[in-house]
Structure formats: structure tokens, C-alpha cells
Design goal:
Elements lengths: L1 E5 L4 H12 L3 E6 L2 H14 L6 E5 H7 L2 E4 L3 H11 L8 E4 L4 E4 L2 E4 L7 H6 L8 E4 L5 H5 L7 E7 L2 H11 L5 E7 L4 H18 L12
Parallel strand pairs: 1-2, 1-4, 2-3, 4-5, 5-8, 9-10
Antiparallel strand pairs: 6-7, 8-9
The protein binds NADP nicotinamide-adenine-dinucleotide phosphate.
Length: 219
């Protein structure tokens, strides 16, 4: 089973690709540029110690070949990316939205104004089957994802309207060292997760760290 990372050339996408490949999955990273995708894939394969665990291609080709698609673009670019890739993706594809609709205005973090209650719900509405989209990894720092030798040591919240798709995503992510997945509920919980991510960005700034994250106690 191939897992794809759309816009997989950025920090978050690269980290997701590394973790997926490190867990033994066959991975494709996508880009608007074939050469950027290929360059990222070879760099990530080198970081994994050689071999061809990760292939690079255009986003639409990644969409056509992947059973699970991680969406790792800036939120402002995500709707166009989803719309462009949807015709190429199989109907049974599960979409994993990791985007966080925030922007920075004179150094301040602002939630992006949305047409839906959350970024994930706005993106899900673009799919032929909105239930195919699951939100996950919104509160996991990219910087830590890229440090493949380090266990993530955190909880990963997964929310969505299809229990089957949430379980599918949780099964993949649970293979990453140090990860416990937590079922956070239906997709409307993404609104909370997106704000929790903004909270972490502020905490990182105030404490001058890069890797703050969540662990739920009492579970
Ligand atoms: N950074 C974190 O710690 C963190 C944590 C949780 C979630 N996230 C979320 O993860 C997502 C990715 O974050 P990032 O820091 O990796 O982002 P990024 O580096 O700014 O962008 C990722 C990739 O998106 C592609 N891209 C940029 N503009 C685009 C456009 N207009 N249309 C299509 N593709 C475009 C680029 O790939 P090509 O130029 O190769 O096409 C770029 O390499 C964001 O939504 C962010 O909120 C980030």
C-alpha cells in the first residue's frame, strides 16, 4: 500500500514521509515540481540510510497512486491542491489533513477566517465523500518529525466522521515510535485542534523552544 504526502517538500511533509518510511511503508512525496519532488525523495532516502523507500512525483500523480494521502500544504494553498488532486484520487482514498489555518500578522498569530467551523471541514466539503477526510498531526511539531531517530513521545489526536477511516489512520500513525493516537471525536473537533496548534506556536515562542506538544494524562 502506497501512502502519499501532497506538498511533501516542506518541513511538515518531509517529516511525515520520513516517519512513514521509517515505519516500513512505501511512500511518495508530491510537489508542483517534478524535480523538487525527486530531489526531496533522494535527500530523505539518504537520511534513512540508503535504498528507495520514498519516491517523488507531481502532486496529482501521488494522488493517483496512494491509498492514504497526507495533505501538508500551507492552509492557504490546500483547497486548490485538494480540488486539483481529487479527480485523480480513487474514491476509497483516505485524506489526512494536517493543515493549520493560521497566519502571522506583525508577529501575532491569527486564525484564518473560514467559511466552515474548521479548516478541515472546509477542505472535506471539497471531496466527493466528505467523510473520507480525517484530521491528524495538527499538534505535532514538524521539527521533531524530521528527527527520525527521536521518538515523538506525544499523543496524536485523530478526528473524523468515519470510524473506519480514523482507525485506518490511527493504525498507520501508531507504528511511529513514541506515538499514542487518541480518538478526538468527529471532524468538528478539528476546530479545537487547530486552536491547540496555535497555542503551541505561542508557547514555543515564549519559551524559545520548537518542540512543545501534547500528552493527555489519565487515559
Ligand atoms: N510546521 C509545523 O510544525 C506544523 C505542525 C503541524 C501542522 N503543520 C501544517 O503543515 C502544513 C505544512 O507546513 P510546512 O511548514 O511544511 O509548510 P511549507 O513549507 O510552507 O509548505 C509545504 C509545501 O507546500 C507547497 N506549496 C507552497 N505553496 C503552495 C501553493 N500555493 N500551492 C501548492 N503547493 C504549495 C510547497 O511545495 P512545492 O513548492 O514543492 O510544491 C512547500 O514545500 C501547514 O498547513 C502547517 O500549518 C505544520
Amino acid at each position: 500500500m502506497t501512502l502519499g504526502v501532497l506538498a511533501g517538500t516542506g518541513q511538515e511533509g518531509r517529516g511525515i514521509a520520513l516517519r512513514l518510511a521509517g515505519a516500513g511503508c512505501e511512500v511518495m512525496v508530491g510537489s508542483r515540481s517534478r524535480s523538487r519532488a525527486a530531489g526531496t525523495a533522494s535527500e530523505l532516502n539518504r537520511l534513512l540510510g540508503g535504498g528507495t523507500h520514498i519516491r517523488g512525483s507531481l502532486n496529482r500523480e501521488v494522488a493517483a497512486q496512494s491509498k492514504v494521502l497526507f495533505l501538508a500544504a500551507p492552509f492557504s494553498a490546500a483547497a486548490d491542491l485538494v480540488s486539483g488532486c481529487t479527480p485523480r484520487a480513487a474514491p476509497e482514498t483516505t485524506w489526512v489533513d494536517v493543515t493549520v489555518p493560521v497566519s502571522f500578522d506583525a508577529g501575532r498569530i491569527r486564525m484564518t477566517p473560514l467559511e466552515a467551523a474548521s479548516g478541515s471541514e472546509q477542505l472535506a466539503a471539497l471531496l466527493p465523500d466528505p467523510g473520507a477526510l480525517v484530521a491528524a498531526l495538527k499538534t505535532v511539531p514538524a521539527r521533531l518529525l524530521e528527527e527520525v531517530a527521536a521518538p515523538l513521545d506525544c499523543d496524536v489526536f485523530v478526528c473524523g466522521n468515519s470510524g473506519r477511516r480514523k482507525r485506518e489512520v490511527a493504525q498507520v500513525l501508531s507504528r511511529w515510535p513514541g506515538v499514542r493516537t487518541v480518538d478526538a471525536g468527529r471532524l468538528d473537533t478539528a476546530r479545537t485542534l487547530e486552536r491547540m496548534s496555535a497555542l503551541l506556536i505561542g508557547i514555543n515562542r515564549r519559551y524559545r523552544v520548537h518542540e512543545s506538544r501534547f500528552r493527555v494524562v489519565g487515559l
